[in-house]
Structure formats: C-alpha cells, structure tokens
Design goal:
The protein is an alpha+beta fold and 171 residues long. The chain is built from seven helices and five strands; from the N terminus they run H-E-H-E-H-H-E-E-H-E-H-H. It folds into two domains: 110 residues, SATB, ubiquitin-like oligomerisation domain (Ubiquitin-like (UB roll)); 47 residues, no CATH class.
Length: 171
Amino acid sequence: FPFFVLAKSLPLHCVVESVHSLQASLNIDNRSPWKRRPNVETDSYVIIAAATPWSEIVQTALQRLGYSQETAATARGSLIIKNWKPITLEQISDNPMVPVCDIIGELTSVVTLRIVILRCKPSPFGEIKDKLLKLLVLQSHALLRSTGCPLDEVSTSKTIFYSLFNVRCSL
C-alpha cells in the first residue's frame, strides 16, 4: 500500500499571507515584481488529519497555526507546486468532502498550501482614534483620582478597557 493510504495525518507546508483586500490577493503574480506583495505572516508546517474534508483544509490549517475562526472565515487557499501558477482549491476537486489524503497524500513533500487572509488596513481616522484612546487610558487614572472616584486603579483600568473596546468595535 502507498504511504498516504495508511497515514492518519499528513505534514503540510503552509504560507499565510495577509492582504488589505481580497481583490489584491487575486492580482498576485510572481512574474510582476512591481506589484505590491502580500505580507508573509507565517511560513510553517502543520499536521493535517488525512481524513480532513478537502473543503476544510484552509480552516484546519489556520486553526493549527493559531489563527481565529473570524480570520479563517474570510481566508482563501491555493496550492503551489514548485514553480507552477497557484491553483485555487475550488479548481482541484468538485467533491468538497473528498479526504485531503486522496488529493495531496503523495505530494506533501512538493506542495505548499498558500493561504491569503484579510487584514483591514487602518484608515487615517482609525489611527487617530487609536492614538486618542491610548491617550485617554493613560490620562484616565489621574483624572478619575482627582475627581474623587472611589474605585482603585485595577477596577478603573478594567472598566475603561471594556468601555473603550466596545466603542472601538462599534465604530
């Protein structure tokens, strides 16, 4: 029997790149060096269960690499074999439930799973807002103490953090 039939898991080389828009990820071309390159966040190996459905390979790899489910939800994957053009995962199999080992079981030493994730680029407004929030946190302790606030520093820090986090997430 070939190795991949008996294997319970497979090592898979993964490269996670971040872009500021998913449209930018479609324009990546190794032959056009003047185009903006994505930021490589992770270049590592993960162990994937051989029976993992093909449709779940990106989410499984990102989970093993420590990325959040929110990041995985918008991620896109493609396979790279040496110097070939990347092949999107949807182009490889019509059956999303086929096990990973049936597709790349014998190729794990030459294939790379390229995953593109979306990272929001902070706007100038967002950068200013973040700086103001940091300043508010720094200034808040002295200001609250001067107004006679009965809470200790730890309590005020937690309250301010949660309030600012909720404001930041809602903006």
